[in-house]
Amino acid sequence: MAKEAKFRKKQATTRQEIPTASLPDIIFMLLIFFMLTTVLREFDVQVEYTLPEAYMIERIENKRLISYIWVGRDGRIQIDDNIVQLHDISSIMYQKRVEIPNLIVSMRIDRYSEMGVVTDIQQELREADALRINYSSLHRL
Question: Which residues are CB-neighbours of 104 under 8 A, at least 6 positions away?
Fold first, then answer.
């Protein structure tokens, strides 16, 4: 019996804890990472549209230079979060061109819209000297 007591393990009396001193630093770095990499949607699109398809498309890398014009199935026109009239486009886009000289106007037009509406919008953009125009489409394979 004496031999059994000889091999008994000693129990630790202190409790080991996980160090948490650097935890706030890690949380702060993760928060900064997600804030920098998250892209927020800028506008609430109020018009219904279906983009046309294209075989050859080119992606614009700098999204900060883009101003969107949506034209819906019903012919309504939206710039940013506002539904606008056709004759208001030139003044709105002129103000945007003053703020951002390299502005690119991206037109997102429903595939079944009439070409007359597109031509009228182009004329308004010419009056505002907004000549860098992009026509958005879906990529067709």
Answer: 60, 65, 66, 67, 132, 133, 134
Is the C-alpha dihedral spanning 61, 62, 66, 68 positive or negative? positive
Domain membership flag for residue 44: no
* Count of domains for the chain: 1
User: Do strands 77-79 and 82-84 pair parallel, antiparallel, or not at all (unpaired)?
Assistant: antiparallel
C-alpha–C-alpha distance, residues 105 and 85, integer Å:
17
Q: Which residue has the tokens 């630790």?
A: 12
Residues of the domain holding 116 = 53-139
Planar angle of CA 7, 8, 11, nearest 5 degrees = 140
pLDDT of 74-128, one tens digit each? 889 999 888 999 999 999 999 999 998 989 998 988 888 888 999 999 999 999 9
133 within some domain: yes
Backbone phi, psi, residue 139, to 5°? -80, 130
Does the pTM surpass 0.90? The reply is: no
Give the CATH number for residue 69. 3.30.420.270
Cβ-contact 119, 89 below 8 angstroms? no
